[in-house]
């Protein structure tokens, strides 16, 4: 190629570079990536984020850090991602049931779930574990039902906040059992767990990922578990379905989302790398040890789930006239 042709090629590249640069940037990551967890440290989302962050750092070639932004039933952390630059560097990792519940729970929220957040992938499903403090005079589902039906008794139930999925599950269960479950909201699952372990609260329905260790270690008593099967570590604890209880498929559905206008290539890249990370034997084993099941079904399946869950969970909020604090 002669000098004239080289000059023409250089001028052509310069002419398209303003258009090409955004497309090139959309293919990769060039600065620190944040995983924003809209809950207190120690809960299921936080445990999962800190498990994934080191492996995503290796996979994406950038530091991945975890930030806890608790408050307003997850809306503070979710809003931070909804208003972040659409470059895939701010990830929202949370129990996405909350995103499906909040539009019915709050008259107004500062972002639109469908417009301002883009699903990347569900990551895991973990069932709920219903557990009681050791001092409560119940040992199984039958004695719990009998205790509740005695109108002299009531149970303080610690939950992760008004309108959380654990709250909706408890409301439906209380209506089914015909007993008095006094809902006591805490700022996330971790503080609620500590309340039951210390004897401050009587009972909890919470993600098995975070709750199972307390039961295995004898700090509280396991009564029942949601989901399709019993937990391997707690084979004597029956499922909600076995007991004929409602909300048998309730649980913590942990997923990752990004800002709603994030380019599709970046979303696909994140989805691809997440699948690889979750499939690593050490990560898969750790998730199983925590009571979770990998659910890397991709952005399209996630969006369908979110749309359907928004309708069904919203129906429960409206049926029980649940209002935020």
Automatic annotation (TrEMBL):
Record has Nuclease as a keyword: no
Domain of life: Bacteria
Signal sequence residues: 1-20
One of the Pfam families matching this protein, by short name: TctC
The keyword DNA-binding belongs to this UniProt entry's keyword annotation: no
This protein's UniProt keywords: Signal
InterPro entries hit by this protein: BUG, Bug_dom1
Family membership: Belongs to the UPF0065 (bug) family.
PANTHER family, alphabetized: BLR1237 PROTEIN, TRICARBOXYLATE-BINDING PROTEIN
Protein name: Twin-arginine translocation pathway signal protein
Organism: Teichococcus deserti
Lineage, uppermost ranks: Bacteria, Pseudomonadati, Pseudomonadota, Alphaproteobacteria, Acetobacterales
